[in-house]
Specification:
- There is one protein chain.
- This protein is α+β, with helices and mostly antiparallel strands.
- It is 42% helix and 9% strand.
- The protein is built from ten helices and ten strands.
- The strands form three sheets. A six-stranded mixed beta sheet has the order 1-5-6-4-2-3, with helices on one face. It has a two-stranded antiparallel sheet with strand order 7-8. Strands 9-10 form a two-stranded antiparallel sheet.
- A hairpin with a 4-residue loop joins strand 5 and strand 6.
- Helix 7 (280-293) packs antiparallel against helix 10 (339-350).
Length: 356
């Protein structure tokens, strides 16, 4: 249940529009065609989500007999169509099948559920055991994955630039975290509040990957979407929290535009005011805080960020400075005036965001 006045219309994709826009203008139809179709499909889904929100989405209750604090996962196969959710292919507790995409989606839903439960005591993305649904093999050569306010959807990629979108577990965690934000702070998806929305999904997407791999902050790669780009693409991932602006530099995709500090904040009317671009700034602040503290990033830095996301004091239109100030307050309240507080304060100073 959101602590604010109703849910924000949510349609959040992992691949930023500026990447698809560039691909859509490429002279090679093998690259431009799938990108154009993906942009068109995203626009249709965004409109559908807005109408669903206005009319009022049907509430989904946890299934009867569901054990407390256990996931309830269902994976569907769209068969390269666009009707959702598609044909059910795996339910909770069923054994893996031959389709690796189905198995990865199922595992990723479970990994996300486990991190939120074990680290933060949260029962699914709404805190009340919401079933986790995912659809795979969506559309033809669909170059994206998204959370539509109700479920996860994965494309197979075009095979030229993007591979199967179930490959990186942090993509799954990123998109499901949009659901957590929807049910808590409900951040507006525009400007700095939208960039915070995106950043929180990157933060917890990365933490889900680190938790799954048992990595410390020093061992983690801090990349979002590693393994998603095709082998011949010059790049490592969609985004880097460690070094925003360095994830890719490719003849086709262009160069990663994310800034790491407020000195290079991008003012734009596209991408909902640059939500996928300027998210690099709070992303980098989290990386700096987590690595300064060491150990497992979900335990201290992650706890502070989670406290702010779910604490009820984060406004829907929050700016970076508002969020930063709340993280300082949360660190002090949870850990006192020790290393945790100093690490959080210094991280925001390093990226040029003031705290009160």
């Amino acid at each position: 249940m959101t602590t604010h006045g109703g849910f924000e219309p949510v349609f959040c994709t992992i691949v930023p529009p500026h990447v698809l826009d560039r691909l859509a203008r490429h002279e090679d139809p093998a690259l431009s065609g799938p990108a154009r179709r993906t942009l068109e499909r995203d626009a249709m889904e965004r409109t559908r989500r807005h109408l669903t929100t206005v009319v009022g989405a049907t509430a989904v209750a946890p299934p009867a007999g569901k054990q407390a604090e256990q996931p309830h996962r269902t994976v569907y196969d769209a068969g390269h169509g666009t009707d959702l959710p598609g044909r059910k292919v795996r339910g909770e507790g069923q054994q893996p099948g031959r389709d690796a995409t189905v198995n990865r989606a199922y595992s990723g839903l479970g990994a996300t559920f486990e991190l939120y439960l074990k680290a933060y005591g949260r029962d699914s993305i709404d805190g009340r055991g919401l079933p986790l649904d995912a659809t795979v093999h969506y559309d033809e050569k669909y170059n994206n994955a998204f959370w539509n306010g109700e479920q996860m959807v994965f494309g197979d990629g075009d095979g030229e630039i993007f591979l199967d979108f179930t490959i990186p577990v942090d993509v799954i965690g990123h998109e499901l975290t949009h659901g957590v934000t929807q049910h808590t702070a409900n951040l507006e998806y525009y400007g700095q509040s939208g960039a915070l929305n995106e950043s929180l999904s990157d933060v917890f997407g990365s933490l889900i990957k680190q938790y799954t791999l048992g990595q410390t902050a020093a061992e983690a790669d801090w990349l979002i979407g590693a393994g998603l780009l095709a082998p011949h693409v010059t790049g490592k991932a969609l985004r880097s929290m460690k070094a925003p602006g360095t994830a890719y530099d490719d003849d086709v995709l262009g160069k990663d535009p994310q800034p790491a500090t407020m000195d290079h904040y991008v003012r734009t009317g596209s991408d909902n005011g640059g939500v996928h671009i300027n998210s690099g700034i709070p992303n980098h602040a989290f990386y700096l805080a987590a690595t300064a503290l060491g150990g497992h990033a979900w335990e201290k830095a992650g706890q502070v960020w989670y406290d702010v996301l779910t604490g009820g004091n984060l406004k829907e239109d929050a700016l970076f400075a508002d969020f930063a100030t709340l993280t300082v307050k949360a660190a002090r309240e949870r850990y006192g005036a020790g290393d945790e507080l100093q690490a959080v304060k210094k991280a925001w100073e390093q990226v040029g965001v003031r705290t009160l």
